[in-house]
Amino acid sequence: MDSIRQNKVNSLLQKEMAEVMQGHSRQLLPGGLITVTAVRITPDLGLAKVYLSLFPVKDKQAVLQHVRDMGHRLRGELGNRVGKQLRIVPELNFYVDDSLDRTEEIENLLKKG
Predict the structure, then answer these.
(1) Are 90 and 12 spatial neighbours (Cβ–Cβ below 8 Å)?
(2) Which of 30, 40, 101, 108 lies at 20 to 30 Å from 2 by C-alpha?
(3) How many other CB atoms sit within 10 Å of the CB of residue 9?
(4) Per-residue pLDDT tens digits for 85-96
(5) What is the tally of structural domains in the chain?
């Protein structure tokens, strides 16, 4: 169970990371949409897992690798935005949030059955 502090930092990082991603969306995914669906931070506030929804994308792993390659620059920009609120900017790990794909798959299975 996350603490109140973790929840506040999760919300702050999600909001600010979404704005950073919006600024780099043309580089990361031309003609597509990148959404930060969730951020989960560790109790020591040192590591943040950033979940991304990518649309429309055929090769999500390639886009995810490109985002990871730019991770250092994205973390720097995030640090500029949250530097006053957080003493240490957490390391960022990026993951594809495929919950919408799974939901759609389950709905299709239910329609068939």
Answers:
(1) no
(2) 101
(3) 21
(4) 999 999 999 999
(5) 1
